[in-house]
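Troubleshooting: if your tokenizer reports a length mismatch, compare your output against this known-good record of 309 residues.
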Amino acid sequence: MNNFSIAIHGGAGTLVKGMMTPHLEIEYKQALKEALDKGYQVLEQGKTAVEAVEQAVIVLEDSHLFNAGKGSVFTATQTHEMDASIMDGKTLNAGAVSLITGIKNPVTLARDVMDKSEYVFLAGEGAMLFARHLNYILEPPTYFYDKLRYKQWLEIKHTDNFKLDHSEKKDSKFGTVGAVACDKNGNIAAGTSTGGMTNKRYGRVGDTPIIGAGNYASNKTCAVSCTGSGEYFIRGVVAYDVASLIEHKGMSLNDASNEVINKRILEIGGDGGLIAVNAQGDIAMVFNTEGMYRACKTSNGKEIIFIYK
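Known-good structure output:
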């Protein structure tokens, strides 16, 4: 039997120890543990890596603490526009959705695009039409209302500024969530979900739903879920870049992840982090910011939950 493992993240950025209350820190770690345990349980039962990442991401989407699903930030027009993607490393099948609203678990809609359509990426009204065709129940705007998120939006709503999640400084924290997993059969998968950026305009789309940028999986190399400054992660094709270094340069999972996050993405002005897993169950969790909400659990007994460096 193959070693199996899972890693999750809840965003990276300015997470300086001491700026967060002890109570909030406990709350974040509990949410991360719940998602980690859910995904690991799926793997333990012999189910697929795709199922494991979907279930782990759902737990994070259902928490108000992270900028995805329930905790999604407000756009310039006081709405919520969510993005998600999922990829199966065994088949290279993938599904992605963007600019959707009212969907409780965007990662599940992304999986339905992968499994129940001939397409990879659906956006906006088309994605919503697909959801209605599958009889999705749309949540009212009140479901996505969060006092902190609303306050963030009020601070900048009449400006051209935007914020990546709940940072004091623009660009200083990214609240995307994601999971990567390797199952008992040595198949890997990645899933990523986000509520975008506070006060975003013009239907802006980040790296999260873009296969190869914010999310990628191939059994030959690795599964990757990213969190960071989306525009730079798109330009750097970050998730696929890690896989390419493994495939074409023979780098280890950890070395490839470090090369991309601590060198290549920094050189073009981007910051953030990623989690990655390979078909042997090895895990990398790399970031170039002060912190990243992250956790992992493996069948050989390793379990960690961290926020700071």
